[in-house]
## 1
Amino acid sequence: MKCQKCQSQTCIIHINANHERLCEDCYLGDITRNFSRKEFACKCGCGFDDINICVVNRLQVVRDILQVPIIINSGCRCKSYNHKVGGKPLSLHMEGEAIDWTVEPEEKFMFAGKMLSGWSGGFHQYSNFIHTDIGRKRRW
């Protein structure tokens, strides 16, 4: 059986709140209690996964308040992948200092946006995901 997060062929011993079958590494997280480095890795497969612990720790606080899993859409991005997805040329994703994420149900998503409006870094709530970073304070 494969882990539904990392796709490794392993003995599945955990089922998370989303009813996914997960291996030990993906279930427990290797950065914080709920987040693993591989969740923040560049989606192109290049291996860039040097996410800044400060942005992950802040997201863990959000996760603890919301009490539901957070889905990471985009964390680290290499220059090539950032260009491919239409990211800004100086995107903090390329520094491992930005995360695009979402949460369900919609009430939690809306609450997260209101809760983070005072975020000290960059913040924007799009219709289907939230961008947070640890750069200078800005909204768009």
Note: The chain has two domains: 1-30, 42-139.
## 2
Amino acid sequence: MSWNYRLVKEKTDDDGDWFGVHEVYYNKDGSIHLINDEPVSICGETPNEIMETCKKIIECLSRATLVDGEIVFVDGHD
């Protein structure tokens, strides 16, 4: 199973938009297995770990945004 960060768009209670960066886990065939409920926080044991996390988050902004309610989850079949 692989994972990466993805930008996820959600609707707020007042019908606005809210964006968060989430960890997304994939099956071997690339289908989405699960997404963390809460957006990621940027923390680490060293400043270098924080820098690496920030780089991965910036990379995720070049991928398509996932829209809550439209995401298809597939049970793991690896």
Note: The chain has one domain: 2-67.
## 3
Amino acid sequence: MAEDTVPQVVPQVQEAQTPPASFDEWLKGQDEPVRKLYETHTAGLRSALQSEREARKTETGQLAKQLREAAAKAEAGSEHQKQLQETAAKLDATERRAEFYEESVRPEIGCSNPKLAWLAAQEIGAMDQKGRTNWEALKQIFPELFKVKITPGNAGSGAGTPPPGKGDMNAFIRRSTGRT
């Protein structure tokens, strides 16, 4: 009778689960309290990042405007005017490239090589005058830039196969103590 009151301990076997493709995918699968906790935890960081981006955009916009105004005041056709115009154009191009890189690493875009994607977008004309990128055209023509590389999340798996002839830890301990 005493054996009937002792609960049986049955080891639970975990099924092999495929890891989510991204953190965002994992987060979508979580309960509402977990998602709200994450949102609360990262709200300050997101607002700081957004304000930093807006400040940078405002500063570079003002700088480009000042360069263009100085170029307009310079003697027409002079070397000084040409340099100011070139500097303003370079500043605009740098700002567009930075915005492209920031956008390319967003999870919904999923670009694996932003630098190469920038060159590809310029090559096929996938960007308009305002710097907006046609990601769908880029994905269609250069799909290899958007392949998500998923690495196995099993710690200790190495190359995915156990070393030959070594066995498990129990076998190692038995061999070490002389019990094979």
Note: The mean pLDDT is 79.
## 4
Amino acid sequence: MKNSYQVKVNNAFDFKIDKQALLNVDTFEVSDSKFHVLHENKAYKTAITKASFNQKSYHIQSNNTRYEVHIFNELDILIKEMGLKISATKKSQKN
């Protein structure tokens, strides 16, 4: 695995982010959920307003615009391609 991530924003935009792309973003943590982000000489006031680590789902507000973001690593993508569900649980029936 190459440390790349598939990101879906607002169930409309899909793109990949790799380690190099993350290195090109300057981030300063203002508090536990607020960040100042500098990307391509543009500043963004960003806050994580809701997070579900297990579901890899985040609600983010950046410069007064809200986004719903889902992050999938390469293993998540492989599991989906195999036709399996990541959060599925198997129930056994006892007679």
Note: The helical segments are 19-23, 74-81.
